[in-house]
Structure formats: C-alpha cells, structure tokens
C-alpha cells in the first residue's frame, strides 16, 4: 500500500445515482441527504485533506453482461422490466413484493447502483486508487434470482467477482512467462451491518471446495429467532463437519452490543484478516447498528474514532493499519436517514485522514438539503444510548474459543493450497 501522502480515494457518485437511490422504498430521500451533507462539509473537495487526494468519479450504469456475472438472466429480465408484470406470480417468484416492491425507476436504480459498485471495484483493480467509496451500494441480501431485505441487486457479490479476477497479462513475452506463477487475488468481505450478510455469504459458501478459495466472508451482526434473515450460516462457527466452511464466517452479537463488545471481538476480525492476507478488502458499513435506528433497535454502537470499539475506530483501523490491501467501502442498512448521512460523512473524513469533529454543527447551507431533519441536536454526532449490553463475559469467551479454533483451521487450509 502507498504511504498516507500518496493515498488516492475515489468517491463514486452522480446525479442520476442520487436521484434513483433516493427512490428506494426503504430509504426514500436518504441518498440526497448523504451526498449533500458530504459536499456541504467540504469532503468532496480535493483540498480537504493534505494526506489524500479525493477524486469524484461518475459511474456508468451496469450492462447486462455486468449483471450476468452473478444474477440469473430471468431475474435480470424481471427487475429491468419497464412495465408491471402480467401476473402476480411473476413478482412473487423473484421476491418483488412485501419489503422489495417494484417502484418507479427500479430498472435505472438496479443498473446505477450495480454500476457504481462495479466502477468502485474497477478503480481499485486497475490501480487508480487505494480506496474507493460507494455509499449507495452494500445491498447484501439480494440473491442470485431473488430480491430480499430491501435489496434488488447483489452489488457486493459483483464487486468481489470482479476483484478476484486476475488482470489481463501484459503484452511482453517476459510478463506472459511470469503471470501463471502469480498468486491469485484474495478478497476479504467484512460486513458491519446489524443484519447478517446472507446474500453475500451464501454466494461464496462452498464447504466441499476449500483448496482454491479466493474469497473469505466475515459478517458481524445480530442473530436471534425472528430477526431477519434466518440462516444457519448466521450462527457462530461450530465444530468442523461436512457443512463447515472456514471461508464463510459469522460473528453474531447479542442485543445491546456496545463499543466495549466491539473492542473485545475486533482482535478476532484482525486475526482472520492476517491469516487470509487479502489483496482487497470490501467493507459493508451498514449503519443500522448505531443507537437510535428506528427499525433495527438491537445495538448501541457509536461513531467517535477516539473511542476504542466504535464504528469510526474500526474503520480507522482498516484504513490505517490493514497494510497491503486496497479497500472498497460500501453503504448498507440504516433507517434514520439523517444519521446515515452523519455517519457516512464522518467515515469519509476518517478515510481521508482528517476526521471531523463530532461536536460540529450541521451546515445550514442553501445547497444542503434537509437541514431541519437534523433536529434536535443539529450536530454531527450519533451518540450511544442507554441500552444494556447483553454480550456477557461468558458469551465473549465462547466467541474467542471458537474463533481460535477457526483460525487454526483456516491457517492449515491456506498452507495446503
């Protein structure tokens, strides 16, 4: 990785991306709040930080070939329809109901969100930046042939598939000789959303084929009966069996997870990262685990980079301490839109090496939409609440024991490759 003075950060956004992302039924208007706040805070200026150079990059819409890297063609055809289907069963078959209804602009939304994340991945893959950001991405519940959990397109999966590809060999004869011996790229996917990354984890889950794994997924989330999504893969790693895949990992936390709990489990995350030694790290930064989220209400996380175990601290560790890999930061869940805007703006400032003060006032700028929505504090902070942290010492000891065993297994598998 380059030194901090040489960091290049790509921020992926366009007016069309904002327009159609703001129509997402679960997060109406969120995208425009996010990017207008980032702009009002000066984060999108190339002069914001002396340590980094930020480039705003306009993405193109994903093509059919791009979407077909993962999604089934009949599903692509269904979500790109510009008219309502003739029968209700068509919508049911592809999950286009309940929490994933059709909405005006769905085809454009799918193409633009996927295109933005693919653009972010390509920027890294071809070395134009060390870090790329797409806060409108991170749709981690979408399946190969089905929408789910407010997610219509599996942009995380598309990015991973692209990043793990070997770059085309240069034209020189010497390069053609050396290329076959090059280690295949490894991609680590880390999910910090309060919900399990079922769409991404399931896409790469393959317990019968461990010898050539290039992708490791690790989801830190809440899991409980009745909490979406329900999946055996959402549970703590268990004793090795035919269904165990050490490259598809989950670290579920109990209600009220606070900075103390995240500080406790973070060494396990970094241990897995060190063993896997990825070339790329894709981080899904869903913000529904922050205190005050109106739909999730399960964690008591906060932002302050100065507090060990906070979301800001975790992102700072990834940016500043995870050497040797390029990083892609994505959005995700978060149903208090002003808090999502606060958070992703704050995380952008951390990524740029110049964290904003959480006590600063939200700009009352004519170019910044939604200023009244930041009431009652009108400051940048999203503080923790009073929720009791139910992650006991006994539970966290169980997590440690299981991840120590997983680490041993993962190290052995990688050494045998």
Mind sketching the topology for me?
Blueprint: E1 7-12, H1 15-21, H2 30-40, E2 52-57, H3 64-68, H4 73-79, H5 88-93, H6 106-125, E3 131-134, H7 155-163, H8 173-178, E4 187-191, H9 198-204, E5 215-222, E6 248-253, H10 259-276, E7 280-284, H11 311-321, E8 326-330, H12 337-351, H13 393-416
Parallel strand pairs: 1-2, 1-3, 3-8, 4-5, 4-7, 5-6, 7-8
Short description:
The chain is α/β, with parallel strands linked by helices and 417 residues long. 35% of the residues lie in helices and 11% in strands. An 8-stranded parallel beta sheet has the order 2-1-3-8-7-4-5-6, with helices on both faces.
Question: How would you describe what is shown here?
Answer:
It is a single chain. The protein has one domain (4-165, 183-416): 3-Layer(aba) Sandwich (Arginase, Chain A). The radius of gyration is 21 Å and the shape is globular. With 417 residues, the protein is an alpha/beta fold. It has helices at 15-21, 30-40, 64-68, 73-79, 88-93, 106-125, 155-163, 173-178, 198-204, 259-276, 311-321, 337-351, 393-416, and strands at residues 7-12, 52-57, 131-134, 187-191, 215-222, 248-253, 280-284, 326-330. It is found in: Nucleus. Residues 48-350 form the Histone deacetylase domain. Its main location: nucleus.
Keywords:
417 residues; alpha/beta; Arginase, Chain A; 8-stranded parallel beta sheet; 8 strands; disordered N terminus
User: Any idea what the CATH architecture is?
Assistant: 3-Layer(aba) Sandwich
Structural class: alpha/beta
What is the count of DSSP helices, taking H or I runs of 4+ residues? 13
CATH class: Alpha Beta
Superfamily (CATH H level) name: Histone deacetylase domain
Please count the beta strands (DSSP E, at least 2 residues each): 8
Distance between the termini: 25 Å
CATH topology: Arginase, Chain A
3D shape: globular
Low-confidence stretches: 1-6, 172-181
What is the assembly state of the chains in this entry? single chain
Strand neighbour order, sheet with most strands: 2-1-3-8-7-4-5-6
| Percent helix | 25-40%
Biggest sheet statistics: 8 strands, parallel
Radius of gyration: 21 Å
What's the overall average pLDDT, rounded?
Answer: 92
Order of helices and strands, N to C?
EHHEHHHHEHHEHEEHEHEHH
- Residue fraction in strands: 5-15%
- Total of domains: 1
InterPro entries: HDACs, His_deacetylse_dom, His_deacetylse_dom_sf, Ureohydrolase_dom_sf
Domain Histone deacetylase: 48-350
GO molecular function, one term: histone deacetylase activity, hydrolytic mechanism
Protein name: histone deacetylase
């Amino acid at each position: 990785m380059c030194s901090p003075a040489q960091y290049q950060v790509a921020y992926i956004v366009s007016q069309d991306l904002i327009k159609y992302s703001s129509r997402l039924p679960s997060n109406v208007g969120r995208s425009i709040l996010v990017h207008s706040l980032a702009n009002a805070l000066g984060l999108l200026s190339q002069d914001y930080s002396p340590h980094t150079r930020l480039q705003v990059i306009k993405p193109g819409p994903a093509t059919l070939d791009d979407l077909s890297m993962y999604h089934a063609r009949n599903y692509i055809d269904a979500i790109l329809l510009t008219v309502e289907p003739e029968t209700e069963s068509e919508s049911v078959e592809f999950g286009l109901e309940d929490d994933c209804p059709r909405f005006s602009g769905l085809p454009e939304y799918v193409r633009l969100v996927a295109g933005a994340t693919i653009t972010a991945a390509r920027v890294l893959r071809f070395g134009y930046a060390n870090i790329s950001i797409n806060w409108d991405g991170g749709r981690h519940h979408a399946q190969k042939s089905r929408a789910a959990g407010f997610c219509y397109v599996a942009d995380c999966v598309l990015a991973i598939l692209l990043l793990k590809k070997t770059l085309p060999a240069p034209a020189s004869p010497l390069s053609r000789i050396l290329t076959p011996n090059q280690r295949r790229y490894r991609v680590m996917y880390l999910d910090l959303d309060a919900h399990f990354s079922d769409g991404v984890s399931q896409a790469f889950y393959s317990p019968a084929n461990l010898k050539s794994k290039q992708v490791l997924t690790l989801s830190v989330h809440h899991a409980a009966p009745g909490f979406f999504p329900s999946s055996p893969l959402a549970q703590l790693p268990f004793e090795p069996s035919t269904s165990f895949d050490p490259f598809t990992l989950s670290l579920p936390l109990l209600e009220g997870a606070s900075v103390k709990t995240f500080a406790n489990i973070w060494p396990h995350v970094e241990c897995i990262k060190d063993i896997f030694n990825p070339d790329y790290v894709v981080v899904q930064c869903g913000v529904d685990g922050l205190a005050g989220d109106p739909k999730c209400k399960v964690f008591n996380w906060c932002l302050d980079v100065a507090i060990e175990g906070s979301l800001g601290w975790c992102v700072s560790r990834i940016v500043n301490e995870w050497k040797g890999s390029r990083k892609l930061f994505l959005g995700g869940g978060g149903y208090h839109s002003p808090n999502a805007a606060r958070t992703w703006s704050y995380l952008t400032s951390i990524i740029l090496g110049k964290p904003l003060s959480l006590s600063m006032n939200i700009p009352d700028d004519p170019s910044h939409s939604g200023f009244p929505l930041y009431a009652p504090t009108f400051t940048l902070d999203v503080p923790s609440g009073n929720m009791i942290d139910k992650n006991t010492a006994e539970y966290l000891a169980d997590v440690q024991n299981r991840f120590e065993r997983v680490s041993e297994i993962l190290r052995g598998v990688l050494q045998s490759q």
